[in-house]
């Protein structure tokens, strides 16, 4: 049985929004963990929530510092090699569509 497509819109009910946030956060943390395990790579996640005073980190604070330190040691070009902003992304998509 397939799931129906979820309409992405702001959830006005506070308790429903918080419940949805917690479910999606749990799913996101699970995906990060799976990605790390399946691909044998260093990953981390930092989620700052309006519902909690401290950000939630995965795997733990030391693990996040280790991954961020590893990222900061990379040369600047290597860090931003695959980073794009919205404008450049749209321009790339337009150019690709024009070629096709």
From TrEMBL:
<keyword id="KW-0804">Transcription</keyword>
<keyword id="KW-0539">Nucleus</keyword>
<feature type="domain" description="MADS-box">
    <location>
        <begin position="1"/>
        <end position="49"/>
    </location>
</feature>
<protein>
    <submittedName>
        <fullName>Agamous-like MADS-box protein AGL80</fullName>
    </submittedName>
</protein>
<dbReference type="InterPro" id="IPR002100">
    <property type="entry name" value="TF_MADSbox"/>
</dbReference>
<dbReference type="InterPro" id="IPR036879">
    <property type="entry name" value="TF_MADSbox_sf"/>
</dbReference>
<keyword id="KW-0805">Transcription regulation</keyword>
<dbReference type="GO" id="GO:0003677">
    <property type="term" value="F:DNA binding"/>
</dbReference>
<dbReference type="Pfam" id="PF00319">
    <property type="entry name" value="SRF-TF"/>
</dbReference>
<dbReference type="GO" id="GO:0005634">
    <property type="term" value="C:nucleus"/>
</dbReference>
<dbReference type="InterPro" id="IPR033897">
    <property type="entry name" value="SRF-like_MADS-box"/>
</dbReference>
<keyword id="KW-0238">DNA-binding</keyword>
């Amino acid at each position: 049985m397939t799931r129906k497509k979820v309409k992405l819109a702001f959830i006005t009910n506070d308790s429903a929004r918080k419940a949805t946030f917690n479910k999606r956060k749990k799913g996101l943390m699970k995906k990060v963990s799976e990605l790390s395990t399946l691909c044998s790579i260093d990953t981390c996640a930092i989620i700052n929530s309006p519902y909690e005073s401290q950000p939630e980190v995965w795997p733990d604070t030391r693990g996040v510092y280790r991954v961020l330190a590893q990222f900061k040691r990379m040369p600047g070009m290597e860090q931003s090699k695959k980073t794009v902003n919205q404008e450049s992304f749209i321009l790339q998509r337009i150019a690709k569509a024009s070629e096709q």
